[in-house]
């Protein structure tokens, strides 16, 4: 009797991972927004990860990552915290959003912050978001960002999270 074939395992998308970027630059970027970046050891469980490993986790003002965490995930979860008022941020554990507007603002802001990370940049981050499976009605992250994200930008400007 033969064993059935093993199920196909989908390879992880080729995206920039936290272990490939400058840790100090990433930590400093988050610190400018009142957040702490915490490195978790390889193979360890990531606290506060909504989607599970290797996705970033959030608890209050802390963002948790491993070397294999995608940079887009680190920025996305950090931006969830950035868009929250301090009193709501302090209560966050794992799930940081409660509205479509906050989610859109988070996606918009993570693209802007990627431009401040050496070796990453907004264009690469948008490509990584597409590769990971983010979906937008215009078909790509770039198309959304350039042609359909005015409401996300306005939401951020209204809350003084972006210059007008």
Structural notes for this entry:
The chain has 164 residues and is mainly α. The protein contains 7 helices and 3 strands, in the order H-E-E-E-H-H-H-H-H-H. The chain has helices at residues 23-31, 71-82, 86-89, 100-114, 122-132, 141-147, 150-158, and strands at 36-39, 57-59, 62-65. A 3-stranded mixed sheet has the order 1-3-2. Helix 4 (100-114) crosses helix 7 (150-158).
Summarize the structure.
This protein has helices at residues 23-31, 71-82, 86-89, 100-114, 122-132, 141-147, 150-158, and strands at 36-39, 57-59, 62-65.
Keywords for this entry:
mainly alpha
Query: How many beta strands in the DSSP annotation?
Result: 3
Helix percentage range: 40-55%
Q: Strand fraction band? A: 5-15%
Label the overall shape.
globular
Count of DSSP-assigned helices: 7
Structural class: mainly alpha
Oligomer: single chain
Radius of gyration: 16 Å
What strand order characterises the main sheet?
Answer: 1-3-2
What sequence of helices (H) and strands (E) makes up the elements? HEEEHHHHHH
- Provide the low-confidence segments as ranges: none
Overall mean confidence score, pLDDT: 92
Distance between the termini: 69 Å
> Main β-sheet: number of strands, strand sense, barrel status?
3 strands, mixed
């Amino acid at each position: 009797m033969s064993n059935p074939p093993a199920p196909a395992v989908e390879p992880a998308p080729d995206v920039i991972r936290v272990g490939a970027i400058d840790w100090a630059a990433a930590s400093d970027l988050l610190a400018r927004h009142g957040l702490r970046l915490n490195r978790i050891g390889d193979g360890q469980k990531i606290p506060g990860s909504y989607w599970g490993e290797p996705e970033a986790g959030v608890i209050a003002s802390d963002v948790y990552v491993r070397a294999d965490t995608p940079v887009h995930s680190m920025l996305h979860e950090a931006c969830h915290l950035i868009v929250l008022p301090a009193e709501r941020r302090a209560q966050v554990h794992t799930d940081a959003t409660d509205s479509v507007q906050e989610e859109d603002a988070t996606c918009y802001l993570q693209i802007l912050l990627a431009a401040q990370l050496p070796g990453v940049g907004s264009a690469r981050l948008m490509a990584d978001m597409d590769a990971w499976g983010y979906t937008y009605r215009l078909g790509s992250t770039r198309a959304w960002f350039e042609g359909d994200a005015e409401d996300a930008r306005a939401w951020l400007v209204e809350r003084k999270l972006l210059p007008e």
